[in-house]
Amino acid sequence: MAICISLVMSLSSKVALADDSTFMYYGFEPDIITNYLSTGKKVGFVRVTIELMAQGETNLKIIQHHAPLLRAALVDVLGRQPEDRVKSLAGREEIRKLCFNTVNQLLKKETGQELATELLFTKYIYH
């Protein structure tokens, strides 16, 4: 009987370990749409689909809980970008890194941990 209980406990701890080592994604829905700083008379906008990668379901749930705060910060970051940065490939990567750092800074302030392991733009449209 003791061997059976030990085996069940061993298997359940391995399942829990596998769950926390799995990378999961949180997608902000709907897409983030905001104006950016344009140089001409025309108003420019950017539409971005953002996915955050986190390790384990627990971290994903924490990110999901803080999603409204993170979304507001992402809108702010995107809205402060100049037109030339929004429209260039190198600029897009700079913006992505800035968004990633902003998200992790906020998560660290709120939870004490940087929970996002990556931030991806899965759609990036500007006009």
Characterize the largest beta sheet: strand count, sense, and whether it forms a barrel.
Answer: 4 strands, antiparallel
Structure annotation, total helices: 5
Q: State the low-pLDDT regions, or none.
A: 1-18
Content of β-strand: 15-25%
What would CATH call the architecture?
A: 2-Layer Sandwich
Helix content: 40-55%
CATH superfamily: Band 7 domain
What class would the helix/strand composition place it in?
alpha+beta
Instruction: Describe the global form.
Output: elongated
- End-to-end separation: 68 Å
Total of domains: 1
The CATH topology is Tetrahydropterin Synthase, Chain A
Helices and strands in order, then pairings?
Blueprint: H1 2-20, E1 23-27, E2 32-35, E3 45-55, H2 57-65, H3 67-79, H4 83-86, H5 89-111, E4 116-126
Antiparallel strand pairs: 1-3, 2-3, 3-4
Helix pairs in contact: 3-5
Give a quick rundown of the structure.
This protein is of the alpha+beta class. The chain has five helices and four strands; from the N terminus they run H-E-E-E-H-H-H-H-E. Strands 1, 2, 3 and 4 form a four-stranded antiparallel β-sheet that branches.
